[in-house]
Amino acid sequence: MAASARARRPGRPDHPHRPRGHARGALRWLGGGVIALVLAVLLGVATVQTVSSGGQRLPFAGLAVVALVLVGLAALVAGAGSLLRVTAWTRGLAGTPWRTGRLRIAGPAVLRVEPDDGGEDVDLRLLSTATWRTRAVQRLDAQEVRFAAVGEGRWVLTADGLGTLYGARTP
Q: In this predicted model, what pLDDT tens digit does every residue of 4-31 receive, in sequence order?
């Protein structure tokens, strides 16, 4: 089925952007975490076998194992959280139409969207704590954005040409 036919189906958002790319990113984080944990196990087993067979002790091997385990666990947590968020956003966008409005920046992560349809202004707080993502949204001040509610007090917004979704919540 063509993309234009999918977009016209009832209940589909009228904006072509979907969080599919975010799901791929979440799966990359999960995969990277699994790879780091597997490498930690392999390095640990190789180190133990080398030392137990009378070989020379490998310097910093234990530290490398601990670092790989910590990085692997952190990547697994980040990937799982991202996958849960993408799932919630996808489910929320399935039945919610996109709205357009003018974005106003009230602070580093404090936003207000003035809907074009004359509805009530929506006050939001950006979910991202990454400085570069916050600055990217701040550059959208006074520009037209698309936004949609994806749950109770949870919103996503984007703008033409951004290629990504930004999560926000009501304060």
A: 444 433 444 444 455 566 678 888 989 9
- In degrees rounded to 5, what are phi and psi of residue 156? -125, 150
| DSSP-assigned letters across all residues of 43-95 | HHHHHHHHHHTTPPPPTTHHHHHHHHHHHHHHHHHHHHHHHHHHHHHHHHHHT
Residue 101 main-chain phi, psi, to 5 deg: -170, 175
Alpha-carbon gap, residue 14 to 150, rounded angstroms = 15
Select from 82, 78, 92 the least CA-distant residue to 18: 92
**Is the pTM higher than 0.90?**
no
Contact 126, 166 (CB under 8 A): yes
Assess contact for 167 and 89: CB atoms under 8 A: yes
Task: Check: CB of residue 157 under 8 Å from CB of residue 147.
Answer: yes
